[in-house]
Amino acid sequence: MKRAAFVVLALGLLGGAAAWFITRPSPLPATVSQRLTGDAAAGERIFLAGGCASCHMGTQDGADPKVLRGGAAFDTQFGTFYAPNISPDPDHGIGGWSQADFLNAVMRGISPQGQHYYPAFPYTSYAKADPQDVADLYAYMMTLPADATPSRAHDLGFPFNIRRSVGVWKALYMNRDWVVTGDLTAEETQGRYLAEALAHCAECHTPRDMLGGMQTANWLQGAANPSGDGRIPPIAGEDFTWTAFDISAYLETGFTPSFDVAGGSMAKVIANLGQLDKAELDAIAAYILRADKQE
């Protein structure tokens, strides 16, 4: 009996140690940040493509999109997430972060304190970004106005309030592989980088499984709205019939081919993407049409 109890205890300890190892945060090698120098001017383009202001600008009417005080609520089946303050304020924002801290947050979903961020922060897409672009983004964001609004804690129940468990989720779903592959043209390749990595289109337009992982077999084919209010439309699949011109014009102006106007969170996305070069919007359009043909 004692031997059986000892075996059970030993197996439990081994299992716990294995779980602790699997769920550990895995930061970028220190050498990645050490070899980079950010360019704030170049970082503005990454800021627009990445849609940082769409989630992190203030929630009041007429909020300045460059004051990233956060506060927006995102209701999901797991609880309510609140966008944090990512302004350069040293106490309530990211003003005390190093460039390496920023790269680990954006590309690995790890806080400066070594904790996992929840994947409501789309680091699974940003993980595909060029580290130089992320360093440029850091340099640009440090030029923006600081704001001392405290971040609000997420409202999550058990077991989702255990951050360490996010390590299991990352092990299941986080990788840097491109979803749309094959013999892409230069324009489609540029569009893939913009859409899959920076603009993270799939984070909203791709359905998710019961654990919140994207179902890549149904890439960009529409998804349930996490808040439970309606659906996010497809931008691939048999129900999507827009042309490249339609897509590019929509991203630039917010007008659909039927002259409807983008609303809700998409209006904020277009407010950012619409400031990119027309060639970049055309590249996103080319990528989306290529994704529509992906088998």
Automatic annotation (TrEMBL):
Domain of life: Bacteria
InterPro entries recorded: Cyt_c-like_dom, Cyt_c-like_dom_sf, Cytochrome_c-type_DH
GO MF entries: electron transfer activity; heme binding; metal ion binding; oxidoreductase activity
Iron is among the record's keywords: yes
Pfam families associated with the record: Cytochrom_C
SUPFAM superfamilies per record: Cytochrome c
Enzyme class at the top of the EC tree: oxidoreductase
Coiled-coil annotated residue ranges, if any: none
Keywords: Heme, Iron, Metal-binding, Oxidoreductase
EC number, UniProt record: 1.17.2.1
Gene3D superfamilies recorded: Cytochrome c-like domain
All residue ranges annotated as the Cytochrome c domain in the record: 38-145, 186-292
Membrane-spanning residues: none
PANTHER family: ALCOHOL DEHYDROGENASE CYTOCHROME C SUBUNIT, BLL4482 PROTEIN-RELATED
Name of the protein described by the UniProt record: Nicotinate dehydrogenase subunit B
Native species: Roseinatronobacter ekhonensis
Taxonomy of the source species: Bacteria, Pseudomonadati, Pseudomonadota, Alphaproteobacteria, Rhodobacterales
Gene: nicB
